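Quick one: structure tokens for this chain, please?
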Amino acid sequence: MSSQPARGTVVPVAVIAVCFALSVLLSQQIDATKPALPESYGDKDLQLNGSRLKGYVLGTESLVADWYYMRSLQYVGNKLLTKSGFINIEDLRDLNARLLYPYLDNATDLDPRFIAAYSYGSLVLPAIDQEKAIAITKKGIANNPNEWRLYQYLGYIYWHAKDYEKAAEYYERGSRVAGAPPFMRMMAGAMKTQGGSRDTARKIFAQMLADNGSDESVAATAKLKLMELDWLDQRDAINGVLAGTKATAGQCPADLRQVMPQLRGVKLPSGDFEINKTGQLVDPSGAPYLVDQQKCEVTLDPKRTAIPHSAGN
């Protein structure tokens, strides 16, 4: 007798799973056969609304939420792969990634405790749509008020927007959540006194990287941002030595190896300069630096560096 209810539950679940899979396959088939459209019309609106599915998929909400989340990752990845020319990770508006927020919104409607989805939106959306980034993170806090990392991410978004007062507010609120590290209270104070400093930025991204609870997208972003900061510190130090050498010798050094003795005495927040096997001074991603002879300034090698070119602006 007990097997009847179980069988009666399994069949509807199986039907829903099959229908959902067929809808995805049908969508893919339509995508493959539809005529080419201008880039600005390349994204179609989502055909399945997560909030309307909730309560009608017999306990498979988390599975469908995972699908929406994976689609959001693929969506942005495909946008980046098809983008030609330089990609400025600080400003991704030209990707026209208008469906990223709907994907994440649907995922978190179905699974309000989907922290990875909120985290991804907090890190990527600021470069696409600042207001949507704030919206998805505030939604995460409303649904998960005891997750201090979401307050950290919202503080980061406001810091990114140079709204240091709001950033301080959310770092402070997050610091009061049980289990929050002392870093949160420290950053609340830093936002009020030195929100725009490079040192504050280094602390933000170092904490993101050190946090064992961070997912891969958070860690990757933090590593890249720390490399950018290291490059900016190194740039300032190298340019100072180049300017002094030019003033003394009357010309700009053709090779940075000529100024290595002066650079060895320079102390940087990230440690010593790095030199590769051939004796070349390299940037934090391991690519050799170049010298702009006209300006007598150090530059990144755009063909070899992993650091965004805009980091030098």
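The chain has a mean pLDDT of 82.
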